[in-house]
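$ fold --in a.seq
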Amino acid sequence: MSYSIENSIKGKVCLITGGTKGIGKECARQMAKMGAKVIVIGRHEKGLNEVEEELKLSSPESVAIKADISSLAEIKEMFLQVKNRFGTVDVLVNNAGTNIRTPAIEVTEEEWDTIINLNVKGAFFCSQEAAKLMDPGKVNKIINISSQYGHVGSSNRSVYCTSKGAVELLTKSLAVEWAPHILVNAVAPTFIETELTKGLFEDEKTRKSLLERIPLKRGGTVKEVVGAILYLASDLSNMTTGSSLLVDGGWTAGS
């Protein structure tokens, strides 16, 4: 019996939203190196062209598609392209997301819609369209990138926490409804050191405040989050559905 993550991802059609930077980009790289046919989704042409060129070095059939997943029309058009090119999706990673830090009393409708439409609406309708293409004779995977803030509250993040809490229950609901041929799980990271969080870690006061909440006393790495995604995408996790894998250094355990 093989216990290789790489062997069980090889040849699969893996679609990753928000795949031009950070966690999504590294996930795409590793899946391509393992022999998957990777589809990267993003909004910016330059980033898409760069990541597609890189992925094709490892996996020539990989492709990047421009789409804004806060728009249902663009989601449907994106999946039509996927259907025409690949015919199916084996693994969906709902990675695209955003946050706007605002005190709850000051949140605008525009800020609410921006966060909820990308983090929740996008994840739901990408899952719906992917499910239509997934082979009912196989074990398929949907992996939602959630957050520790889908499990605990935080000041100035009321809408973000709401969106990630929704992602957590979306994960459970779809897991129950779509079993046994689609397994749906979430990965919930703490603060991960990326270009987007660089400013937080460079500010000494903020860094100290964050690390005091994490029992492991450090931020997470992109590699550690991608490791969790690859496990859930592989056959090693075929008895796991409806779960949220916390990659938070113990933050929520102590909350």
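$ fold --in b.seq
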Amino acid sequence: MQFDCALQQTQLAKAEAALMAADTAWRGNQKLAELNSVGKVELDISKADVLKAQAEVSANRALIGKCQITAPFSGRIAEQKAREQQYVQPGQALLEILDDSQLELEFIVPSRWLAWVRNGAAFQVNIDETGKTYPAKVQRIGARVDPISQSVKLTAVIDGRFSELVAGMSGKVLMAPPQR
């Protein structure tokens, strides 16, 4: 995402020109100081002008650095939370981005399945929206059994990339205990 920062870029160009002028004046005063033709105060003031101009250039570069926002990961835009010409507060979300590199499944299973379900266990899932069956693997087993429903939460991932799958779809887990 990128903002219109033409004004900030112009301010940076102005600050860089001021730095060049201050640097030229300081170098000239240094040469004059070697010839004892300028006072120490004048030389120190011209050096301070250079430092001030450098700080102004740095500040403008920092502003321009904020003109472009890069997502922390690649994914799909799920929701635009801010619109063009809208003011936002620092830290306010602009977009909701979903990481679709690995689609996760969350489901509950009977707690008695803990006797045989393991991380990495392969199974199939039938997705309602596509009518197709896809391979999946158990990624995490919940740390707590719900004593009322006697169930435990499992998290799994779709094993592979399937362009027709989108976050939020639902389906049925096809999982059975291993044959003995």
